[in-house]
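Input chain follows. Return structure tokens only.
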Amino acid sequence: MDSCCQTSTGKPITFSQCPTCHQKGKSIQLITLKAILQPIALETIHPELNYSFCTNSSCEVVYFCDVQTFGKDTLKVPVFQKDDSMDVPVCYCFGWTRERLIQAVKENQKPIDHIREQIQANRCGCEFNNPQGACCLGNVTTFIRGLDKS
């Protein structure tokens, strides 16, 4: 299995518009839907269709396709981009929440280095664990940079 955090998957990233907020969404793999949706929602997916992830923090829609949407209430986990709670994961594979990242930075730890080491050891599973279906290292980096500015 290829690492979920490789820079190139060989498959082009496509974008479509969220039917609720009209912001561009990022295409996701079917395996992510299968891993993240609650069973009742999973029973309604259309495996032959292409789904996208809506990153708009103020939009209730998480996943969408031409004929269907799934909101935050249909997922097994909270979504970093749509829930600003301190205990929501920023890195889903290794349990780095906002709160844990803030504490690590205060203690001069290097959470990005830790996550990179885990990725290099082929231990990440972002396509299964992260609702956006992609590597969360970018989210972690952005979050930590935001701490430096505050």
